[in-house]
Amino acid sequence: MTVPDGDKPATGWPVIVFNHGYIPPAQYRTTERYIAYQDALARAGYITFKSDYRGNGDSEGTPSGHFAPGYTIDVLNAVGSLKKYPDADANRMGMWGHSLGGEITLRAMVVSQDIRAGVIWAGTVAPPGEQLGMWGGGFHGGPSAPRELVDQYGTPEQNPEFWASLSAISYLGYLSGPVQLHHGEADEEVPLSWSQALYDAINQVGKTAEFYTYPGSDHNISQGFDLAMRRTIEFFDKYTKGDELN
Protein backbone atom coordinates (compact mmCIF):
# COMPACT_ATOMS: atom_id res chain seq x y z
CA MET A 1 0.00 0.00 0.00
CA THR A 2 1.15 3.52 -0.75
CA VAL A 3 -0.21 6.60 1.01
CA PRO A 4 0.38 10.11 -0.40
CA ASP A 5 2.50 12.65 1.43
CA GLY A 6 0.91 15.97 2.31
CA ASP A 7 -2.25 17.14 3.98
CA LYS A 8 -4.96 14.51 4.03
CA PRO A 9 -8.31 15.68 2.62
CA ALA A 10 -11.04 16.23 5.19
CA THR A 11 -12.86 13.04 4.17
CA GLY A 12 -9.67 11.00 3.71
CA TRP A 13 -7.58 10.08 0.66
CA PRO A 14 -9.35 8.62 -2.37
CA VAL A 15 -8.33 5.02 -3.02
CA ILE A 16 -7.27 2.97 -6.04
CA VAL A 17 -7.31 -0.81 -5.68
CA PHE A 18 -4.51 -1.98 -7.96
CA ASN A 19 -4.86 -5.38 -9.67
CA HIS A 20 -1.67 -6.75 -11.21
CA GLY A 21 -1.52 -8.94 -14.30
CA TYR A 22 -0.77 -12.64 -14.47
CA ILE A 23 2.69 -13.55 -13.24
CA PRO A 24 3.39 -17.22 -12.44
CA PRO A 25 2.60 -17.36 -8.71
CA ALA A 26 5.92 -18.98 -7.83
CA GLN A 27 7.75 -16.10 -9.54
CA TYR A 28 5.57 -13.23 -8.32
CA ARG A 29 7.15 -10.78 -5.86
CA THR A 30 5.07 -8.10 -4.15
CA THR A 31 7.24 -5.07 -4.88
CA GLU A 32 9.07 -6.23 -8.00
CA ARG A 33 6.83 -4.75 -10.71
CA TYR A 34 4.37 -1.87 -11.25
CA ILE A 35 6.40 0.51 -9.10
CA ALA A 36 6.10 3.41 -11.55
CA TYR A 37 2.36 2.83 -11.91
CA GLN A 38 1.64 2.98 -8.19
CA ASP A 39 4.01 5.90 -7.71
CA ALA A 40 2.22 7.98 -10.35
CA LEU A 41 -1.15 7.37 -8.71
CA ALA A 42 0.15 8.11 -5.22
CA ARG A 43 1.70 11.37 -6.42
CA ALA A 44 -1.71 12.29 -7.86
CA GLY A 45 -3.23 12.05 -4.38
CA TYR A 46 -4.48 8.47 -4.12
CA ILE A 47 -3.91 5.68 -1.65
CA THR A 48 -3.05 2.65 -3.78
CA PHE A 49 -3.33 -0.94 -2.62
CA LYS A 50 -1.85 -3.78 -4.71
CA SER A 51 -2.84 -7.13 -3.26
CA ASP A 52 -1.04 -10.42 -3.56
CA TYR A 53 -3.82 -12.67 -4.83
CA ARG A 54 -4.16 -15.97 -2.99
CA GLY A 55 -1.09 -18.15 -3.51
CA ASN A 56 0.86 -15.19 -4.95
CA GLY A 57 3.80 -13.56 -3.19
CA ASP A 58 3.28 -13.45 0.56
CA SER A 59 -0.40 -14.50 0.48
CA GLU A 60 -1.50 -17.83 1.85
CA GLY A 61 -3.71 -20.26 -0.03
CA THR A 62 -3.70 -21.91 -3.43
CA PRO A 63 -3.65 -19.88 -6.67
CA SER A 64 -7.09 -19.55 -8.22
CA GLY A 65 -8.06 -21.00 -11.56
CA HIS A 66 -8.44 -18.36 -14.25
CA PHE A 67 -12.24 -18.55 -14.51
CA ALA A 68 -12.80 -19.30 -10.83
CA PRO A 69 -13.95 -16.48 -8.54
CA GLY A 70 -11.03 -16.66 -6.10
CA TYR A 71 -8.98 -13.64 -7.19
CA THR A 72 -12.11 -11.50 -7.52
CA ILE A 73 -13.11 -12.46 -3.99
CA ASP A 74 -9.63 -11.47 -2.80
CA VAL A 75 -9.92 -8.06 -4.45
CA LEU A 76 -13.40 -7.45 -3.05
CA ASN A 77 -12.11 -8.36 0.41
CA ALA A 78 -9.38 -5.76 -0.13
CA VAL A 79 -12.09 -3.20 -0.91
CA GLY A 80 -13.83 -4.09 2.33
CA SER A 81 -10.63 -3.75 4.33
CA LEU A 82 -9.74 -0.41 2.78
CA LYS A 83 -13.17 0.98 3.67
CA LYS A 84 -12.13 0.55 7.31
CA TYR A 85 -8.70 2.17 6.90
CA PRO A 86 -8.88 5.46 8.85
CA ASP A 87 -7.06 7.62 6.28
CA ALA A 88 -9.13 6.36 3.32
CA ASP A 89 -12.32 7.87 1.93
CA ALA A 90 -14.61 4.85 1.61
CA ASN A 91 -16.90 6.80 -0.73
CA ARG A 92 -14.15 7.54 -3.26
CA MET A 93 -12.76 4.21 -4.43
CA GLY A 94 -11.58 3.27 -7.90
CA MET A 95 -9.93 0.19 -9.37
CA TRP A 96 -7.08 -0.28 -11.86
CA GLY A 97 -6.14 -3.52 -13.57
CA HIS A 98 -3.62 -4.78 -16.11
CA SER A 99 -4.14 -7.89 -18.25
CA LEU A 100 -5.65 -10.53 -15.90
CA GLY A 101 -6.04 -7.71 -13.36
CA GLY A 102 -8.22 -5.92 -15.90
CA GLU A 103 -10.56 -8.89 -16.08
CA ILE A 104 -10.67 -8.99 -12.27
CA THR A 105 -11.48 -5.27 -12.25
CA LEU A 106 -14.40 -5.80 -14.64
CA ARG A 107 -15.74 -8.68 -12.55
CA ALA A 108 -15.46 -6.66 -9.35
CA MET A 109 -17.32 -3.73 -10.89
CA VAL A 110 -20.37 -5.83 -11.78
CA VAL A 111 -20.48 -7.23 -8.23
CA SER A 112 -19.71 -4.25 -5.98
CA GLN A 113 -21.22 -0.79 -6.10
CA ASP A 114 -18.33 0.55 -3.99
CA ILE A 115 -16.12 1.06 -7.06
CA ARG A 116 -16.81 4.43 -8.63
CA ALA A 117 -14.65 3.97 -11.73
CA GLY A 118 -12.33 1.40 -13.30
CA VAL A 119 -9.34 1.61 -15.62
CA ILE A 120 -8.20 -1.44 -17.58
CA TRP A 121 -4.90 -1.74 -19.45
CA ALA A 122 -4.73 -4.57 -22.02
CA GLY A 123 -7.35 -6.61 -20.17
CA THR A 124 -8.11 -10.28 -20.73
CA VAL A 125 -11.72 -9.24 -21.05
CA ALA A 126 -12.99 -11.52 -23.82
CA PRO A 127 -15.67 -14.13 -23.12
CA PRO A 128 -14.26 -17.44 -21.81
CA GLY A 129 -14.78 -19.19 -25.12
CA GLU A 130 -12.42 -16.81 -26.89
CA GLN A 131 -9.85 -17.10 -24.12
CA LEU A 132 -9.95 -20.88 -24.23
CA GLY A 133 -9.53 -20.73 -27.97
CA MET A 134 -6.35 -18.69 -27.53
CA TRP A 135 -4.77 -20.29 -24.47
CA GLY A 136 -6.32 -23.74 -24.35
CA GLY A 137 -6.73 -25.55 -21.04
CA GLY A 138 -4.57 -23.20 -19.01
CA PHE A 139 -3.85 -19.50 -18.89
CA HIS A 140 -0.30 -18.36 -19.74
CA GLY A 141 0.85 -21.73 -18.44
CA GLY A 142 -1.19 -21.18 -15.28
CA PRO A 143 -3.76 -23.26 -13.39
CA SER A 144 -5.65 -26.05 -15.09
CA ALA A 145 -9.14 -25.04 -13.88
CA PRO A 146 -10.41 -24.24 -17.41
CA ARG A 147 -9.58 -27.80 -18.48
CA GLU A 148 -11.46 -29.12 -15.46
CA LEU A 149 -14.45 -26.92 -16.32
CA VAL A 150 -14.50 -28.22 -19.88
CA ASP A 151 -14.43 -31.79 -18.61
CA GLN A 152 -17.34 -31.09 -16.23
CA TYR A 153 -19.53 -28.72 -18.23
CA GLY A 154 -18.49 -29.18 -21.83
CA THR A 155 -16.97 -26.68 -24.23
CA PRO A 156 -18.38 -23.19 -24.84
CA GLU A 157 -19.92 -24.55 -28.04
CA GLN A 158 -21.57 -27.43 -26.18
CA ASN A 159 -22.78 -25.40 -23.18
CA PRO A 160 -22.83 -21.69 -24.10
CA GLU A 161 -25.14 -20.69 -21.23
CA PHE A 162 -22.74 -21.98 -18.59
CA TRP A 163 -19.72 -20.25 -20.12
CA ALA A 164 -21.62 -17.00 -20.58
CA SER A 165 -22.49 -17.11 -16.88
CA LEU A 166 -18.76 -16.94 -16.05
CA SER A 167 -18.20 -13.77 -18.06
CA ALA A 168 -18.56 -10.27 -16.63
CA ILE A 169 -19.66 -9.21 -20.11
CA SER A 170 -22.98 -10.92 -19.39
CA TYR A 171 -23.59 -8.50 -16.52
CA LEU A 172 -22.42 -5.13 -17.83
CA GLY A 173 -25.75 -3.58 -16.94
CA TYR A 174 -24.63 -3.84 -13.32
CA LEU A 175 -21.38 -1.89 -13.81
CA SER A 176 -20.80 0.33 -10.79
CA GLY A 177 -19.32 3.21 -12.76
CA PRO A 178 -17.48 4.37 -15.89
CA VAL A 179 -14.69 2.28 -17.42
CA GLN A 180 -11.61 3.49 -19.29
CA LEU A 181 -9.79 1.04 -21.59
CA HIS A 182 -6.21 1.21 -22.90
CA HIS A 183 -4.51 -1.17 -25.32
CA GLY A 184 -1.23 -1.20 -27.25
CA GLU A 185 -1.65 -1.83 -30.95
CA ALA A 186 1.51 -4.01 -30.96
CA ASP A 187 0.35 -6.16 -28.03
CA GLU A 188 1.39 -9.75 -28.81
CA GLU A 189 -0.12 -11.27 -25.66
CA VAL A 190 -3.72 -10.03 -25.52
CA PRO A 191 -5.62 -9.15 -28.73
CA LEU A 192 -6.55 -5.51 -29.20
CA SER A 193 -9.94 -6.67 -30.46
CA TRP A 194 -10.88 -7.80 -26.94
CA SER A 195 -10.78 -4.25 -25.60
CA GLN A 196 -12.61 -2.95 -28.64
CA ALA A 197 -15.37 -5.52 -28.19
CA LEU A 198 -15.74 -4.66 -24.50
CA TYR A 199 -15.93 -0.96 -25.29
CA ASP A 200 -18.70 -1.63 -27.80
CA ALA A 201 -20.58 -3.85 -25.34
CA ILE A 202 -20.42 -1.26 -22.55
CA ASN A 203 -21.83 1.37 -24.91
CA GLN A 204 -24.60 -0.99 -25.99
CA VAL A 205 -25.91 -1.24 -22.41
CA GLY A 206 -25.84 2.54 -22.03
CA LYS A 207 -22.89 2.76 -19.63
CA THR A 208 -19.96 5.20 -19.87
CA ALA A 209 -16.67 4.06 -21.42
CA GLU A 210 -13.54 5.51 -22.96
CA PHE A 211 -11.11 3.59 -25.20
CA TYR A 212 -7.56 4.53 -26.20
CA THR A 213 -5.09 2.67 -28.38
CA TYR A 214 -1.34 3.20 -28.64
CA PRO A 215 0.45 2.61 -31.96
CA GLY A 216 3.62 0.56 -31.56
CA SER A 217 2.96 -0.12 -27.87
CA ASP A 218 3.33 -3.56 -26.32
CA HIS A 219 1.28 -5.42 -23.71
CA ASN A 220 2.54 -3.14 -20.94
CA ILE A 221 1.93 -0.01 -23.07
CA SER A 222 5.58 0.78 -22.39
CA GLN A 223 5.89 3.04 -25.45
CA GLY A 224 2.81 5.05 -24.46
CA PHE A 225 3.14 4.86 -20.69
CA ASP A 226 3.24 8.57 -19.87
CA LEU A 227 0.19 9.39 -22.00
CA ALA A 228 -1.77 6.37 -20.77
CA MET A 229 -1.00 7.21 -17.15
CA ARG A 230 -1.98 10.85 -17.64
CA ARG A 231 -5.32 9.76 -19.11
CA THR A 232 -5.74 7.27 -16.27
CA ILE A 233 -5.23 9.92 -13.60
CA GLU A 234 -7.52 12.41 -15.35
CA PHE A 235 -10.22 9.73 -15.51
CA PHE A 236 -9.90 8.86 -11.83
CA ASP A 237 -9.80 12.55 -10.92
CA LYS A 238 -13.10 13.04 -12.74
CA TYR A 239 -15.02 9.95 -11.65
CA THR A 240 -13.38 8.83 -8.39
CA LYS A 241 -11.82 11.87 -6.77
CA GLY A 242 -14.43 14.26 -8.16
CA ASP A 243 -18.18 14.37 -7.88
CA GLU A 244 -19.18 12.92 -11.25
CA LEU A 245 -20.90 9.55 -11.18
CA ASN A 246 -22.53 7.56 -13.94
Brief sketch in words of this structure:
With 246 residues, the protein is α/β, with parallel strands linked by helices. Helix content is 35%, strand content 16%.
Key traits:
6 strands; 8 helices; Rossmann fold; single chain; alpha/beta; about 250 residues
Name the CATH superfamily assignment.
Alpha/Beta hydrolase fold, catalytic domain
Tell the overall outline.
Answer: globular
Largest sheet: 6 strands, parallel
Query: Which spans have pLDDT < 50 for at least 5 consecutive residues?
Result: 139-144
Percent in strands:
15-25%
Count every beta strand, where a strand is a DSSP E run of 2 or more residues: 6
Query: What is the level-2 CATH architecture name?
Result: 3-Layer(aba) Sandwich
Distance between the termini: 28 Å
Q: What share of the residues lie within helices? A: 25-40%
Q: How many structural domains does the protein architecture include?
A: 1
CATH topology: Rossmann fold
Order of secondary-structure elements: EHEHEHEHHHEHEH
Number of separate helices: 8
The order of strands across the largest sheet is: 2-1-3-4-5-6
Radius of gyration (CA) equals 17 Å
Mean pLDDT: 90
Derived structural class:
alpha/beta
What does this structure look like?
With 246 residues, this protein is of the alpha/beta class. It has a single domain (13-21, 31-241), classed as Alpha/Beta hydrolase fold, catalytic domain (Rossmann fold), CATH 3.40.50.1820. 35% of the residues lie in helices and 16% in strands. It is built from 8 helices and 6 strands. It has helices at 35-43, 70-82, 100-111, 128-135, 145-153, 160-165, 192-204, 225-241; strands at 13-19, 47-50, 88-98, 117-121, 179-184, 209-214. A 6-stranded parallel β-sheet has the order 2-1-3-4-5-6, with helices on both faces. The protein starts with 12 loop residues before the first strand and ends in a 5-residue tail after the last helix. Residues 139-144 have low confidence and may be disordered.
